[in-house]
Amino acid sequence: MKHIYKDDIVNIPEGVQVQIKARQIRVTGPRGTLSRDLRHIQVDLQRPSKTQIRVVVWQGGRKHVACIRTVCSHITNLINGVTKGFEYRVACVHAHFPINVTILAEENAVEVRNFLGEKFVRKIQLYDGVKIEQSKARKEELILTGNDVNAVSQSAASIQQATRVRRKDIRKFLDGVYVSHKGVIDAE
Q1: Helix (H/G/I), strand (E/B), else coil: 140
Q2: Residue 25 and residue 22: Cα distance in Å, rounded?
Q3: What sign for the dihedral angle of Cα 135, 151, 102, 117?
Q4: SS3 of 116, please?
Q5: What is the tens place of the pLDDT at every residue in 82-137?
Q6: Minimal CA–CA distance to 112: which of 104, 123, 98, 125?
Q7: What is the pLDDT of residue 187?
Q8: Residue among 128, 184, 129, 124 nearest 156 (CA)
């Protein structure tokens, strides 16, 4: 069944500027500027007022109407990124061989050594705009922060995937670097 008209509204907070041109969105806030290209999704982006964005689908089926919420979530993530920022925490878990994680700040990378006692050094390159630091509360925890949720989450996932256990029983060998917390940066 086709829906003739469906829409949803995203509210823009104070101090955030949003520019839309041909389904390319540019959001500027106190933490910086983020942009997103949504030309592959066929929706109308309208500005009924300075503080709102309306996402509209005309003559849409079920999957086309589902794109409305997707676009609204992308815009909300851009707004949260330039106002609060995103934080992912990854924890090093080991049973016998302690995992040694080294932060290479000048290369924006992480080195993982002694994973399951292997001599192979895993080097994981982080995405641009992602900062990594050692947690002060927990010894074997890393904190990844940044404005772009895609870059921060993909960097955390790359670290986790680099320490997958292969050719062993994963029920017994639970070692690895796992994402333990994800969300926006807490206002401290």
Answers
A1: coil
A2: 8
A3: positive
A4: helix
A5: 999 999 999 999 999 999 999 998 999 999 999 999 999 999 999 999 999 999 99
A6: 123
A7: 60
A8: 124
Q: How far apart are CA 148 and CA 186, in angstroms?
A: 16
The residues that bridge with 146 in the sheet, in sequence order, are 86
Question: What single string gives the DSSP state of each residue in 54-107?
Answer: EEEEEEE-HHHHHHHHHHHHHHHHHHHHHHT-EEEEEEEE-SSSPPEEEEETTT
Cβ atoms of 98 and 32 closer than 8 Å: no
C-alpha distances out from residue 152 to 12, 14, 84, 135, Å: 23, 25, 14, 16
Q: How many angstroms from the chain centroid is the CA of residue 131? A: 13
Laid out side by side, the sheet with 141-146 consists of 131-134, 141-146, 86-93, 176-184
- CA Rg, the chain, in Å? 21
Give the global pTM: 0.91
pLDDT digit string, tens, across residues 147-179: 999 999 999 999 999 999 999 999 999 999 999
